[in-house]
Sequence to fold (561 residues):
Amino acid sequence: MSAVTAIAKREIRSFFNSPMAYITLGVFLLLSGYFYFNTLFLVGQASLREFFNLAPLLFVVFAPALTMRLLAEERKAGTIELLLTMPIRDSHVVFGKFLAALVIVAIGLLLTLPYALSVANLTANNSSFDWGPAVGGYLGLLLMAASFIALGLWASSLSRNQIVGFIIGLLLCFAFYIIDRTAVFLPASMGSVFEFLSVDYHFRNIARGVLDTRDLIFYFSLTGAGLLLTTRTLASSRQ
Amino acid sequence: MSATSGAPMIEVRDLTKNYGSFTALQGLTFQVPKGQVVGFLGPNGAGKSTTMKILTGYAGQTSGSAAVAGIDVQADPVAARQNIGYLTESNPLYEEMMVKEYLDFIAEIRKIPTDRKSVRIKEVVERCGLGNMIGKDIGHLSKGYRQRVGLAQAILHDPDLLILDEPTSGLDPNQIVEIRNLIREIGEEKTVIMSTHILSEVQNTASRVLIINEGKLVADDSPENLTHEEGGTLYVVVAPKNGTPLEHNMVERMLTGLPEVSQVNAHEITDEGALGFKVRYSGEDPRRSVFESVVKENMVLLEMRRHHVSLEDTFRKLTSND
Ligand SMILES: Nc1ncnc2c1ncn2[C@@H]1O[C@H](COP(=O)(O)OP(=O)(O)OP(=O)(O)O)[C@@H](O)[C@H]1O
Ligand SMILES: [Mg+2]
Fold:
């Protein structure tokens, strides 16, 4: 077993050993359930669209909440000295933490699948259900979560304080979420740059069921940049 | 292992460490050959932990070099650390993990093969006296057992070099003896460098003592030499043989006349009619000649005891800043 998976495994186990895990997952499932079904009661029609419209905002909050303690807590408790003196690279520590958060998000998303299936059932009565956007939406959410986790992890590496980690992570994720909405106030050339930087813009593309390499490249780059920054911050936290 | 054979286990050359404008280490140089057990002494803030953090790669030096088993700790940190087991000063542990889980985790990070893992954990648990604790949460352990968990973690991969930063601090006397015995056992096969404030610990376990003060090496010798090079002091009490009172000057002259003795002072005593002296000597042990000359002068030797120079004395002399 590699050091990366050892670190990820330890982190996932410690997450599910704490009551906070179940509160976090519970709230996440409640809110996503609400997003799935509120239109059903209001307009008598169920669709995934409402969920996929709001889910990015949900991740803006939940991703940094998951990542806030991952490195800040190690620094506060001093266990970071243990990890950083093991015969592994700093990046292995970062990848392990990243992997742990991604797995937890994937579990959360998996638990919302029953919602998607029941919506599909309701729709299938009169028309056939289009699975393209659903698959695209879930894939998009996972990619978006990966980039938010990378950003949140960096925020967590900046100090010993989890709350600071959460707030910085939240602001970063929100900035990458909201940036394309500011595009309307800008000249067209600038606007398209801002649009390209927006997590939500690429998500909407993928959620339409179209997989474009530009969208993939964006998510991979943002995730990579976050992980690189985290590794560098961790390295500079050595004394 | 990728260790270069023939190289010393630790080689520190001209090591300097600045924290901002504060200099914690100033040109520290020493070597530790394979198999040696070294006590690393110095007052608070001398730079012991800093040196150990540089050796383990947790801190980076400002200048100079440090190598473990011939591998530069900056150039190839991963390879260098494979040879090291490290117990940090504060011994931070994952409180919510059970002892068994924690050692499993360390074994996985250290890439101990699965087929050897459980055997090795069992060995280490037994060696560190953790048998009854493996199912307990680390957060519920007493200080002594936490320290054992830290040690178990450090020796799990059977490293050639153990770096122990104050391994017995905060333990009760029984625990200290047990941990010390454990370290002595480990030291029979491995290279150990341990920092401590308990000087008797070094006398009992280490074959060599490094003393640093304000980031500089001030002594590097065996515990025996550090406690004996000074010569010592005798406390001598003599009494008259048959009632004739003793003459202080005469006795003092007699003692000063002995070749080994460097200085004689009067020493308060409570015995009626007897005289006390504090005799300082620099070379050979003068007890035999003191006894013989007292008898020859027809006096009675009531008492004679030797006061060793303790490591504490040497330590204080070398590290006091006035
Ligand atoms: N991260 C740091 N930032 C600034 N100064 C530091 C840092 N770490 C250590 N120092 C300073 O460096 C000096 C040496 O510290 P070090 O911890 O190496 O001493 P020590 O010999 O281990 O002392 P002790 O016996 O108290 O453990 C001290 O004056 C300390 O205040
Ligand atoms: Mg120290």
